[in-house]
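Figure 3 (text version): structure tokens given as input.
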């Protein structure tokens, strides 16, 4: 069984600024610092932020879904501003999923605006189809809102200088 969930959020910053956050490891650091209710830890276990980078995500107690998993960056396209990560160990794979991929795409909208499109793609084995209900767009929506607030704060700080 294959499924896909999407979330879009307008950002009041140029696509290049949004990509400076999402195209690097900076988003992981920000998430760990600013979202302790969602993430207990975001650890870099391998790589430098490019394709092949592996992060271990540990969720805070009480967050629905898996307690932790490792994800690997399978695509980092700086021209198209797309980053994809797939779960490679633990988490959803232990719940009968054969694929769990998160994609962040920064789409240029205008000179000073962009859209952050977040997509979750998953494939779950038929005998575990009930676990598809564990997949939620809420974590990526929360990350998108955090990023928007962070980018807006930085924009305001830059304008004040």
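Below: residues designed for each position.
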């Amino acid at each position: 069984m294959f499924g896909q969930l999407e979330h879009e959020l307008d950002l009041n910053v140029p696509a290049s600024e949004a990509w400076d956050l999402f195209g690097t490891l900076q988003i992981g650091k920000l998430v760990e610092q600013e979202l302790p209710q969602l993430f207990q830890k975001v650890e870099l276990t391998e790589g430098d932020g490019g394709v092949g980078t592996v992060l271990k995500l540990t969720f805070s107690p009480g967050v629905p879904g898996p307690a932790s998993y490792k994800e690997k960056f399978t695509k980092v396209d700086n021209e198209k501003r797309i980053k994809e990560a797939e779960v490679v160990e633990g988490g959803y794979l232990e719940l009968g999923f054969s694929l769990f991929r998160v994609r962040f795409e920064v789409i240029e909208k205008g000179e000073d605006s962009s859209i952050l499109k977040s997509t979750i793609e998953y494939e779950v084995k038929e005998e575990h189809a009930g676990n598809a209900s564990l997949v939620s767009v809420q974590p990526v929506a929360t990350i998108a809102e955090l990023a928007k607030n962070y980018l807006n704060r930085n924009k305001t700080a830059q304008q004040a200088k």
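The longest helix spans residues 138-160.
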